[in-house]
Every structure is written in structure tokens, then in C-alpha cells.
Amino acid sequence: MDCKKVGKLIYELRKEKNMTQKQVAELMNISDKTISKWERGLGCPDISLLLKLSDIFGVSIEGILSGEINLNELEGGNMKNIRFYICDKCGNLITTTGEASISCCGKKIEPSIAKKAEDGHRLNVENIENELFITSEHEMKKEHYISFVAHVKGDRVQIVKQYPEWNMQFRLNQNGRGKLYFYCKEHGLFYQIV
């Protein structure tokens, strides 16, 4: 841990929040001299204080330890760049349109890599009354089911959550050509063009 980099970051984050050293120190139950010492690079925060610093400034502990917060390049929110983060413990689904550091259930999650759907995993898609009618014969048991389906187009995404024991059939607004993404609890993320 580079105390000079960490101190510079703490200074920048404090200024960004329009806070004084005394205000930060009071929130942390330490002296403002300690904050000054950190900002001058003459010491680093004790590990027991990192969580509180993270909460005060709204940044990750990892960012504080590295002494830098890396900003993403502006990607314009193009849904074609969508990434699906799925927690293998609780099934939580998080989407982003750019790089992100995501964690759930105490573990860091990497974005799922979509595989092209083959015959055994393809969804049945029919156009009915300006809607996509989606069905599947996929098993829908607690240990093996499709947990969500997402229709992604350049400017929007529609996500439908699925649950075990449900018959998988639903309608989506047809908003032009795009990709269907769907997540099988046992085999991972798939896509097919519609």
C-alpha cells in the first residue's frame, strides 16, 4: 500500500464531498490530525477503519487500498454492450453496459459469457400480434431451470424472471431485431438472435 497515493486519494475524495478533515474525523471517531497525517502520506489508515472510510466516501475498500479510483470510459449506455452478472449463491441478477466491479454474497462476480444456443437449449419464438411469444420445453425444476430471459436491442432491454415449477411461456413487446439472452442454472448463459 502506497501511503502517498492513498493519502492523495483521501484528500481528493474529501474535497469532492465538500468535507473538512474535522468532519471526516468526527464520523470516524478519530482526530483530525490523523486525517491530516494520511493526506500528507505520512501514514495509512488502519485496516479496522477502511470500511468506515469506504462508507463515508462511497468507494470500494479496494479503491482506497490501491490509492486510485478507475473511471470507465463513456460507452453511452448501448445495450449491445450489456453484461450479465449472476450470483451463483442467491441467483441475484445485475446488468451493466460497461465495466463494473460487482460483488454479491461476499464474493466478487465476473460477467457471464454467453454461448450460442444449440438445439437442446434454443427457445421457441413466435411473432403474435406485435409481440414475441416465447416458450420452452426446458426442464423447470429447482436444481435445473431457466432463471431469466432478456430481449436486448440497441436502446433497450426487457427482462422476464422465471422460477422453478413454472411453465415457461410469456410474451415480450416486439421491438425489432435483437438478441435473446437466457440463463440456465446448470449450463450458464445462452443467446440466440431473434
Question: What count of domains describes the coordinates?
Answer: 2
CATH architecture term of the largest domain: Sandwich
Main CATH class of the largest domain: Mainly Beta
Give, in spatial order, the strands making up the sheet with the most strands.
5-12-11-8-9
The total count of helices amounts to 5
Question: Low-confidence parts, pLDDT < 50 over ≥5 residues?
Answer: none
The residue fraction in helices comes out at 10-25%
Q: What is the CATH topology of the largest domain?
A: Immunoglobulin-like
Query: Can you write the helix and strand succession as a string?
Result: HHHHHEEEEEEEEEEEE
Strand content: 25-35%
Main pleated sheet = 5 strands, mixed
Give a count of the beta strands, DSSP E runs of length 2 or more: 12
Alpha carbon gyration radius: 23 Å
Name of the CATH homologous superfamily of the largest domain: SOR catalytic domain
Structural class: alpha+beta
* N-to-C CA distance: 49 Å
GO molecular function: DNA binding; iron ion binding; oxidoreductase activity
Protein name: Transcriptional regulator, XRE
Keywords: DNA-binding
Pfam family, one: HTH_3
Please, could you describe this protein's structure?
The chain contains five helices and twelve strands. With 194 residues, the chain is of the alpha+beta class. It folds into two domains: 3-66, 434 Repressor (Amino-terminal Domain) (Orthogonal Bundle); 79-193, Sandwich (Immunoglobulin-like), CATH 2.60.40.730. The strands form four sheets. The chain has a five-stranded mixed sheet, with no helix packed on it. A three-stranded antiparallel sheet has the order 6-7-10, with no helix packed on it. The longest helix is centred in the N-terminal third of the chain and has 14 residues, at 3-16.
